[in-house]
Amino acid sequence: MAERKVFVDSVTPLPKEQEGLGLVHDGLMINAAAAEHKDAKMTVLFSLAISPAAQQELEDRVARGEVVSPEELQGKYAASSTDKDALVTWLRGQGFEITHETPDATSVYARAPIDQIEKSLGVDMVRVTKEGITYTAARNPPSLPAEVAKSVHAIIGLQPFRQARKNSRRCAPAGNNRAGLVRPAQPEGSALTAAAATPNVQNAPPYLVSEVLKAYGADALGVSGNGQTIAILIDTFPNNADVKAFWKANQIAGTISRVQKVNVRNVNLPPPTGEESLDVEWASGIAPGAKVRVYASGSLRFVDLDLALDRILADLPTRPGMRQLSISLGLGETFMGGPNGEVATQHAKFLRLAAAGVNVFVSSGDAGSNPDDTGQSPTGPTQVEYESSDPSVIGVGGTTLKLAANGTVTSETAWTNSGGGKSIFFSRPSWQKGAGIPPGTERLVPDVSLAADPNTGALVVLGGTVQQIGGTSWSAPVWAGFCALMNEARVQASKPMLPFLNPLLYPLIGTPSFRDIKNGSNGAFAAGAGHDLVTGIGVPNVKQLIAALP
């Protein structure tokens, strides 16, 4: 038999059939072999690595604040096209349909029936039920013939029950401080009137865009994000009527054409549930002159999120103003399975985005220092969530923001459910240093923070109804909007747009560019002077930050 390379990091092994089907394993009900589902098709990502030397060089360039051209990313920092072509040829010979290849040769997406996947990749497929949904999933690690596996470092998509979680929280009714918060649903296609949508108490939750801009020194800057595009990665689109109603409630002018929608897989998308509305409404509200480009993955399966990231990367050469991306998703690192091929795969994509000058803002999570598998309860192990722990993104934690009647900040403390802690996957980046940084070698999360507490939450329109929503899912798109404002200001000042922000932000610990959050905790960790594992280096003063960034 020809030698085969086994990808032990690509799946978490499940019990063998003879150990008992119908058993529960780590919250999974393993039901039966997948015999009756052999004809069903599955899409698999074959992730190819660039050379270790090229990878380290790219990491170093990003850490130095360099921006790499699309031509270099697709040339000097590409995977081996020879290895990619050999893999594609073999897959086609095995009956796989190649659905997508990236220009940098790092990703090959292929589709085949379950029966063929079992034979070609040497896996046993079983039926697995999680949270009432049944999936066909690999029980054991996949493998490839050694001669076609040279650059392949992971095979993604064989365990679709493992998915990212959305990081948003709705306010409990008792937390609504403004009168008339909940409105009856409006007819399809209608917009709430400004009078109906706008609460009648000034500077009290749910907060409006103008209040958040003032709280973080981002008002009266003379910029609106003009010339910039804010990308948002989520599973579905918001309703146009909701976005327009949100703008009207916040007295924001604009046409819905500035919200561009990309159905990444050209599939039927799930209905809006709030996350997509929060992201689009607030990113577009903070930077009303920017375009917002929503990449809808159709699901929260990692293989579909990977495809969306590849689509964003592919769009960069023709969209030079797309220099900020908001992601309000995550999963506790211990639930990713590790060491993990999916983490390595996504890190490679985030590194390329950072190298291209795209700042990726990722919510740190809404279950404090101990998120469970749902991301909603602080009953899991002490851990951070991936993707916010990736060293090529800006992890965004959460605060509880309270305003005076005149709009000034009366207090801001760490939100008790702000995700944060120490990564088990990534080592301490060279730029993560300064006041408050504890000794150690782990990547620390978050980097920065912003308002997140749903009890002092954001006004969001969903299904024609005004709601109060928070979570670090609010913090991330607001930061992306701030980034668009900063990039426009730099263009106006004849400066280059921002490179990867983290190496530039950490030297500003303790300066007027950030308000240090010194009170509160997320369970295992407490806020304190300088950087902490709840709020990072603090919340921004955008005006000061624009002036301070080199």
Note down, in words, how this protein is organized.
The chain is an alpha+beta fold and 550 residues long. Helix content is 25%, strand content 25%. It contains 14 helices and 28 strands. The strands form eight sheets. Strands 13, 14, 15, 16, 18, 20, 21 and 24 form an eight-stranded mixed sheet that branches. Strands 2-3-7-8 form a four-stranded antiparallel sheet, with no helix packed on it. A four-stranded antiparallel sheet has the order 5-6-4-10, sandwiched between helices. α1 (52-63) packs across α11.
Summarize this structure as a short list of keywords or feature phrases:
globular; 14 helices; 550 residues; alpha+beta; eight-stranded mixed sheet; four-stranded antiparallel sheet
Largest sheet, if any? 8 strands, mixed
* Estimated structural class: alpha+beta
* Poorly predicted spans: 173-198
Instruction: Tally the beta strands.
Output: 28
State the shape.
globular
Question: What's the overall average pLDDT, rounded?
Answer: 92
Oligomer status? single chain
DSSP summary: helix tally: 14
Beta percentage is 15-25%
Radius of gyration: 23 Å
